[in-house]
Structure formats: C-alpha cells, structure tokens
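Record 1 of the preview.
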Amino acid sequence: MNNFRYHAYTDVRFGKGQVECLPELLAPYGKRVLMVYGGGSIRKNGLYDKVKELLADFNVFELGGVEPNPKITSVRDGASICKKENIDVVLAVGGGSTIDAAKVIAGGAYYDGDSWDLVVDSSKIGKVLPIVTVLTLAATGSEMNKNAVISNMETNEKLGTGCHDFIPQASVCDPEYLYTLPANQTAAGTADIMSHIFEQYFQKETRAFISDRFAESLLKACIKYCPIALKEPDNYEARANLMWASTQALNSLISSGKGGAWTCHPIEHELSAYYDITHGVGLAIVTPRWMRYILSDETVGKFCEYGRNVWNITEEDAYVCANKAIDATEQFFKDCGIPMTLSEIGIDASKIDIMAEDTIKYNDLAHAYVALNKEDVANILRECL
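->
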C-alpha cells in the first residue's frame, strides 16, 4: 500500500432540509456572496427562491447559466464579479459543472491574469475564496474534492486542474433535490460515479485491500439504486445512496494507498472538448471498450475479481469471468438508457486521430493501469463508433 494523505475537512450536511443550515455555513466567511448556478433547474424546483430567502441578510450577487461542460468564459465572468464586488465567499448551487466553475472562479478572484492560466497550470493557483456548495446532482464528487474540469471551446481543450484550497468548506447534500432530475441525467451521473471508481480500482497497486473493498461496495450501490431511481424518481433511499456514493467515490477515500494516471476520463475529455457531449455518456461509451482493449494475462485477474465481487459471477475460468463482467457493465449502461456508440450521438471517425493525439499530449497515460499510446487511444475510439 502506498503512502497517502487523507484530509477530509468538508463540513457535509446530508439529508432532508439541510439547506436550512446555509446561513450558518456561510456566516463565518462574510456577507458578500457570489451565488453560482446553472441553466435554470433550481428556479423550477424552488431551490433558487429558498436560497434567496435563507440569505436575505446577505448581499448576494449572481452568476447564472453555467454550462454542463463549464466554459472558461463563465469562469472569467465570475472572477470579474468577485474582484469588482469584493466577494467574501462563493456559493455553488448545482451539480459538478457549477461547482467546478465556482472553484476556478474562487481562484481567479485573486489572480491578476486570465483564469485559463489556472486551468493550464495549477501551480499558478494562489489564494482562493472559500467555497460552499448545495448539491443538486449525484455525479462528480466535486462537493468534497479539490478537482475542477473546465472547457475552452476556442481551443478545443477540456482540462483538469485543482488545489487543496478548492475543496469546499461545506456542502449541503439533500437527496430530495435529485427528484426532479431527468432520467438521462440520473443515468449519466451514475456512469460518471462508476467511472471515478473504475479509474481508482483498476490500478497497478494490488495491496490496498480496504480501498478496493470500499470501491466494490460503491459500485454495487450504483448498480442497485440507479435502476430504482430511474423507475421511481422520488425514491429517497435510491437518491440518498446514489448521492453518497458520488461523494465517496471521489473524496480520496478509495484512492488511499493507491495511485496512477487515469485513462477513460482523459479520453472522454477530448470527446467533450470537440463535441461538447454529456460527460457521463462519453464515459459509459468508452469504458467497456477500454476494458476489452486492455484485457490480457496481466489484467485478467483484476477483471475477474471485479466480476466476482461486484457482479457475483461464479465462472471458474478467469477469461470467461472477466468477459462476462465487461459485458455486464456495458449492458447495465445500456439498460439505463445511455447511448452506447459514438455514432448514436453524432460523432464519426473524422477527428479520432487528433483526439487521440490530444489525449496523449495532455495526459500521462504511460503511467496508467495499462500504458497506452496514441494508436491505442485511436483504436479504442474506433471501437466506440
């Protein structure tokens, strides 16, 4: 097991009605709040009005319209507001895209240059405004981690950045806010959760027994509760377990004692950078193809472990077990209503080579679970067509 630091300091308020704690959570940081949110769903479900009511004693400024793949243009706008209005704290109300934008906005508030610099080079992130979140989508785990992913559509770049101070000071996680999610967002969010887990589970370090068992339990929760949430959108048990799985999947818990570069996320980031597709959909399409591509004598044991512990597959032959596990993964995403080929979402082969080149350019896939080069990435993308 590798050395690790696990410092989980986010004050998580989980459950029904926890948004009432918002004034208490924001008060230590000041009265001037930048409220960041997305495309309007919080207005439809009443959360916008509730937050404004709770913050009546605060001076609230707003940045709405943050995109599903958050754009650097929105970040620049938010950072500008922070500087002009002397903002004390950034409040993100929404899903991972909103929270990711809020994180870089919080860093951009103290940065004299272009906020895109903070995405390209995280070492340039200095002082960061405190961040508080109200979560409305179970997917990215941004409510309890240091990561942010931002897109620059002018350069066809979608890059990750992060720093310790990007970790939210507090996060309100009320599963009832997931009730009104469209089915496709619930499914794509679950695919994102599972992909986070896969990226940490399939790594070269094999002695982190506890972390791997945690990972398997989170995968089993996704497999159990996503179909229920799709069928019964207001099933609190299903929504609560998916929301907590999302948080636990990417707050460093299951990566403790492990390490190594990720694979499917870097590949999907290029799909989103060029085609602006839903992140979870891209991950669901790529993941089974990546699994089949890297299956070998060196990896079959881990895939068999995954099949037996997560899918309860009892086949004695390791390759049969592994292939059944991969098939089950693909079928699960398909049964959740996710399109499972790139052609279904309007992507052809025309940009595969350049996306493969950019994947390698921006990411260290040489140190992934199985090292990949440009040709490997291109082959996986072609398998996705």
